[in-house]
Give the backbone structure.
Amino acid sequence: MRKYMSIFNSSHEKLIEFINRYYARRGWRIISIVKSNGDFWATLELETEKNND
């Protein structure tokens, strides 16, 4: 199963730094980064184990 999230920051450099500090270490990976309305938006993906319920 996969989980997705989006986060944003007005600085591309600070966005990457934030992702590397808080999300990359936990297994999240960047799917895309786009600029919209003056902010940079990153979409992240996390691969999780299948739930066998």
Notes: DSSP finds one helix and three strands in the chain. Helices lie at 12-22.
